Amino acid sequence: xxxxxxxxxxxxxxxxxxxxxxxxxxxxxxxxxxxxxxxxxxxxxxxxxxxxxxxxxxxxxxxxxxxxxxxxxxxxxxxxxxxxxxxxxxxxxxxxxxxxxxxxxxxxxxxxxxxxxxxxxxxxxxxxxxxxxxxxxxxxxxxxxxxxxxxxxxxxxxxxxxxxxxxxxx
Length: 170
Description:
The protein is mainly α. 66% of the residues lie in helices and 3% in strands. The longest helix is centred in the C-terminal third of the chain and has 30 residues, at 140-169.
């Protein structure tokens, strides 16, 4: 297994976790909160997908799927077109309303673009510096691992919220 296989495996696992978290979830659970300031399933999946789309597009040197494939219009959110959810307030979190089909479709599109990019990376590409504001500077490899970590945390949170909501219905 080489570096691209490892990265493809990680991003494919995230895609599969997003799908399983959203599969069969009641519509009302997508925007339900387990406390007044908690993130919703819809927001968590939208946010993790926006971060992946934004960050991978940044290192790949292409535009975000969100913008080029019309997802920004399909979601029709009251945010700046480039918003990724970072630092959003509880009121802003509540404004993310989307169906499982919309969330899954957007995530699948971003995942496909990510895998396509990752499959073309050489070992040298992974060492390319993409952000010098940090010490040490951030490379493509570090950025991709950061996205993987962030995505796994958020999809885990979404699955946790789903579990809590399902137990409350019993």
